[in-house]
Amino acid sequence: MKLLGVNSTKKNKVDGILLSIMLVMLLTIFLLIATIYGFISVGSQVYIVWLLILILSALMVAGLLLIISGVAVLLLWYNKDIPTPLERFTETYFPIIYPVIEGMGKALGYDKNNIRRAYTVINNKIVFSKEYSLNGEDILVLTPHCIQKSLCPHKLTVNVNNCTGCGKCSVSMLIELSKKYNIIFKLVSGGTVARRIIQEADPKAIIAIACERDLISGLMDTKKIPIIAVINIRPEGPCINTLVNVKEVEKAIIHFIGE
I need a labelling partner for 203 at 20 to 30 A (CA). Which of 47, 54, 119, 220 fits? Predict the structure, then answer.
C-alpha cells in the first residue's frame, strides 16, 4: 500500500486524534447524565426506565462506532491494511464526528490546525490505500492564487498559461507537471470559484493544495470525488506567497494514474 509520508510529529498527531475521540465519548456520557437527571426531575419513573434503556442502547452503539472508527484510524495511520468494509465505514463515519471533534478541541484550546492536519492525513491514507487507473485529463489540481508571487503582474487565475516561467514561485513547476501528465491545473481565488471549476471540469479525482482550513472545507463539500489534500507551505504567513511540495503533488498524480 503506497501512502503519503508523515513527518516526525506523527506520535503527537495520533495523540491528538485519540484525545479527540475520548472527548467525544466524554461528551456523550455527559449528555446521558444530563438527560437522565432532567427526566428524573420532571418525568414518571416508568417513562424514565424506558428512556434510560433507549439512551444506554444508543450510547453502546455510539461507543462501538467510536471504537471501530478509532481502530481504523490507527491502522491507517501506521500504514496497515484494513478490510474494505472497515475502510468504507471510516470514510462515512469519521467526517460525521469531525465537526464535533474540532468544536470541542477549539473550546478546550487545542490547536485546531493540528486536528485539521490529522484529518487530512487520514483522508490521504484512505485515498492512497485504493487503486486507480485514470487518464490525466480526469485529474484536477486546484491551488489558491496565493501560490503566485504577490508582485507578479500576470493574471493566472484567468489562465495559468499566462505564467512566463520565471521560477520565482511554484506555479511554473505545476504547469510542467500538468503538461507531463496531461492533467487539469487551475488557480482559484476562493471556494466559490473552486466549486464552479469542479462542476465544469467534472474530474474523477482532485489534488487540492491549500491551508488546513480550506482543505477541510473542500473535503466536507466534495465527498463523492477522491481528494488528496496537500497542505501548502507559508513562509510569509497565510494567503501570501505560499509554496507547495511539488513532489507530493506528483506522487498524488502518479497514484491516480496508476503508474
Answer: 119
| Alpha helices, DSSP H, located in 43-110 | 45-77, 84-107
Residue 8 confidence (pLDDT): 40
Q: How far apart are CA 186 and CA 198, in angstroms?
A: 10
- Same domain, yes or no: 98 and 174: no
**Cβ neighbours of 46 (radius 10 Å):** 8
Predicted pLDDT of residue 191: 84
The pLDDT of residue 251 is above 60: yes
Cα-Cα-Cα-Cα torsion 143, 145, 151, 152, nearest 10 degrees, comes to 70
Q: Looking at 128, 149, 182, which one is the last position of a domain? A: 128
Give Cα separations from 56 to 31, 63, 96, 106, 216 (angstroms). 11, 10, 21, 28, 32
The sheet that has 205-210: what strands, in order across it? 184-188, 139-144, 205-210, 227-231
Output the average pLDDT for the chain.
78
Has residue 118 been placed in a domain? yes
Domain that holds residue 253: 136-257
Q: Which of 15-19, 146-150, 247-251 has the lowest mean pLDDT?
A: 15-19
Task: Quickly list DSSP for 97-146.
Answer: HHHHHHHHHHHTT--HHHHHHHHHHHHHHHHHTS-----GGGEEEEEEGG
Amino acid letter, residue 99: P
pLDDT band at 9 (very low <50, low <70, confident <90, very high): very low
pLDDT-based confidence at residue 183 (cuts at 50, 70, 90): very high
Domain-ending residue, one of 128, 160, 193? 128
Range 73-81 average pLDDT: 65
